Amino acid sequence: MLQRYRFVFAPRWVLLTLAGVVVMVACALLSQWQWGRAVQRAAANEVIETSLESAPLDETLPAGEALDPDVRWTLVEATGVYDADQEVVLRAQTNGGLNGFEIVTPLVLADGTAVFVDRGFVASENTGSVPDYPAPPAGEVTVTGRVYEYEEASGGVTEVDGHLESRRLSDDMLASRFDYEFRSAWVADTEPIEGLTELETPSFKDWQNYSYAVQWALFAAMVPVGLVVLVRRERKDLDEAAAEAAESAADTEPAASEAEAAGSH
Q1: Are strands 75-82 and 140-148 parallel, antiparallel or unpaired?
Q2: pLDDT digits (tens, 9 = 90+) for 145-158
Q3: Which among 188, 243, 204 is positioned nearest to 39, based on CA atoms?
Q4: Ramachandran quadrant class, 261 (left: phi over 0; alpha: psi -120 to 50; beta: rest)
Q5: 20-to-25, 34, 35, 96, 231 alpha-carbon distances in Å
Q6: Is residue 226 a contact partner of residue 16, using CB atoms and an 8 Å limit?
Q7: What is the pTM of this model?
C-alpha cells in the first residue's frame, strides 16, 4: 500500500503539504482569536445586563490606578463640580441611527482629580457646526454613568468657539490640555439633562464571533481532507495512465508478432 503512494514524497507534493499545514495553522489561530473575542463580548454583555446598581467612583476607578478590566461597562456614581470652561465636543458620532456630537465635560472631584463625563448626544443639524446644547449644571452634582475605556488616539484636537473638538475620547490626546489628573476611564451619563440624549446602551454581537470561530475551524479541518482528496485523485490518475499504457502495449504486441511472422515467409 505504501509503495502506491510514494509519489507524495516528490518535491511538488512536499511543498503542497507544507503550504496546507501553514494554511491549517493560520485558520486554527484565527478561530482561536475569534473565539476569544466572542468570550470577551459575551462577558461584556453579561456585565451590562447585570449592572443594575451603581458603585462609588472611588471604589471603581481609584485615583492614580490603572483601569481594572472587570469594571468596564459597570455603573458608577460620582460627585463633583463640572468644569464648564473645559468642555470637549466629539465630532462625527452616531447614536440611535443619527449623526451628531457628544458633549464631554470634566467633572472635578473632591480630591482635585477629575473624570470625563459624556453628558449626552446632540443630533447634527447638517450645518457643519455644533448645534446649541445645554450647559452643565452649576455647583456640586452627582452623576450616575457607565464606565467606558478610553479610545485609541486618532486624528487631532482643535479649539473651536471656546471648546475643544476631537473625534476620539482619548486620554493620550486630551489629558495634557488640563491641569488636573484624570481617572483611568470615562463615564457616560445615564440620565442626561433635557436637550441631550443618553448614549445607546452597548450591545456586542458575540454570536457573530462564535460563528466566525466555527467557520475558521471548519476551514482548518478542510485542509487535510482536501489533501487526502488530491492524493487519491493523483493515485487514480496514475492507475488509469498505467492501465492505458498496459492496454496500448498489449495491442501493439500482437501486431508486432504478425509482422514478424509475415517477414519469415
Answers
A1: antiparallel
A2: 999 999 888 878 88
A3: 204
A4: alpha
A5: 9, 21, 22, 45, 13
A6: no
A7: 0.69
